[in-house]
Amino acid sequence: MKTIAVLTSGGDAPGMNAAIRAAVRTGCENNVKMLGIRRGFKGLMEGDMYEMNLRSVSDIIHRGGTMLYSARSTEFATEEGMAKAIEVCKANNIEGIVVIGGDGSFRGARDLSVRGINCVGVPGTIDNDIACSDYTIGYDTCLNTIMDMVDRIRDTTESHDRCSVVEVMGRRAGFLALNAGIAVGATSILIPEIEFNIERDIIDRMRRTMKTDKKHFIIVVAEGITEKLEAQGINGVNALAKYIQHTLGVESRATVLGHVQRGGSPSVKDRVVGSQMGSYATHLLLNGVGNRVVAMKKEDIIDYDIVEALNMKKAIDRELYNTAMEISI
Description:
4-stranded parallel sheet
């Protein structure tokens, strides 16, 4: 290949810049023209891109977010939008694209690949919900951010003998909530993948713990449990905190961590894995291989067919969940 482009799509994740840096420098070192596409597939359709070199990606490995910016585009999902993107690729002699993002980004990469533009997906999402990969760029940094924030909340919670209900990201996946909940010693953890009952899994657990003279509590919930809460007559985390206070007499507060979870300087793991995956993706394209997703299995970087990867399902670790419930009482 003579020209390869790089873009980031969907939600930003710490470590995306490390992947961009590695992809670009790998291409440059192999005498390939590298183009950076701004704002994802939207920018691709609009031709918003520029040539990148070794110095274009200097001093970005420590930065959160994505230097190429990101945007979601409904137009790209249409045949008209796809035609625009392909026309831009042809006009700029783009023969391959490194797509850094999540499931939605990979669907876009798949659609371009079947239309003749080789694409390789790199899993960059804080949710760690890409089924084909044990790890996604941004997950470790996000977990450490949640842990740090909840540790700070705990200081006030303990000082006032309160219960803090903390909502973390995870609309369809509970990996963040489960692992962060264990890390902060949460009394209860509610995630989308596992059915729960408020009385059994929060109220009764708190009652048991109170009998051992515990007076402050942390409850970690994933944002994706909203419908299940509503089915039990609880309309959101603020209502859950009020219910706990009304039922147990323990002063309770709710905190929604929100987008603070996406930001911050990436951890060592996200910098290293991002660099590995970005370089691997470019090497695939240099070898004329497209329609693939880069993945981590144990400590190895491998790749899958995009269609195969998108059809995979990632299950929550039930044993880990059971461990959390056993040790946090």
